[in-house]
Write a structure and sequence with these properties.
- The chain contains 6 helices and 7 strands, in the order αααββαββαββαβ.
- The protein has about 190 residues and is α/β, with parallel strands linked by helices.
Length: about 190
C-alpha cells in the first residue's frame, strides 16, 4: 500500500513535469509560461461571457483571442448595442492590458463562410511556415470574412515579412496586424 502511494506520487510528479514542459513549448519564446496560462484564462473568460449572455448576443458570431494579455475580438454582432456590450463586458476581465474590438455589425456568417475562413487561416499558416519560416506558435491568426488578423511579438523585420507573405496569399481581402514590438536581440 505504501509502495502504491509512492508510485502514484512519482507518476503524478512526472505527469506534472511533462505538462509544464508542454506548456513551455506552447508558450513560444516570446511569452512566459505564466503569460501563456493567463492568455488561456482571458480567452476562456471572454468566451464564457459571450456564451452566457445569449439574449444580448443572439445572432452574433464573435471570435476571441488573447496573446500577451492583449485581447482581440473579431467576427460579427447582430447590433451596434451588442457589439458595444461585448466590449463593455470583456473589459472587466482582470489582467487584460489592451482590447482590440474588431467586431463588425452584420449578419452571422453562413457555415460556408466560416469554413472558408478556417481554410484561409490554414493557407496563411502554411504560407508563413513555407515562405517565411515562421512557426504558428509565434504568430496567432484569426480570419473573418476574408480579413486576416495577426497577433504576436515580432521585430520590425519579422512584421514586414509576415505582413507581406499574408497579403500575397490568395483569398486575403485585408490584413490587420496587432503586433507588439520586440528588439532584434530578443
Amino acid at each position: 500500500m505504501i509502495k502504491s502511494r509512492i508510485v502514484k506520487k512519482t507518476l503524478h510528479s512526472l505527469l506534472l513535469t511533462l505538462l509544464m514542459l508542454a506548456i513551455a513549448g506552447c508558450a513560444g519564446k516570446s511569452r512566459t509560461i505564466g503569460t501563456f496560462i493567463e492568455d488561456q484564462a482571458i480567452t476562456l473568460k471572454a468566451k464564457h461571457i459571450i456564451k452566457t449572455n445569449k439574449e444580448t448576443y443572439q445572432g452574433s458570431a464573435v471570435k476571441v483571442l488573447s496573446y500577451n494579455e492583449v485581447l482581440l475580438l473579431t467576427g460579427t454582432a447582430s447590433t451596434e448595442t451588442a457589439r458595444l456590450k461585448i466590449l463593455k463586458d470583456t473589459i472587466l476581465i482582470p489582467k487584460i492590458r489592451q482590447i482590440h474590438n474588431e467586431i463588425t455589425v452584420s449578419r452571422k456568417p453562413s457555415f460556408l463562410s466560416s469554413l472558408s475562413d478556417k481554410y484561409l487561416a490554414a493557407k496563411v499558416r502554411i504560407r508563413l511556415l513555407a515562405d517565411a519560416g515562421i512557426k504558428s506558435s509565434e504568430i496567432k491568426i484569426v480570419c473573418s470574412k476574408g480579413t486576416v488578423y495577426l497577433m504576436g511579438i515580432v521585430n520590425d523585420t519579422e512584421q514586414k515579412l509576415v505582413s507581406s507573405v499574408v497579403r500575397k496569399t490568395s483569398g486575403v481581402k485585408r490584413v490587420v496586424t496587432v503586433f507588439e514590438s520586440k528588439s532584434v536581440d530578443a
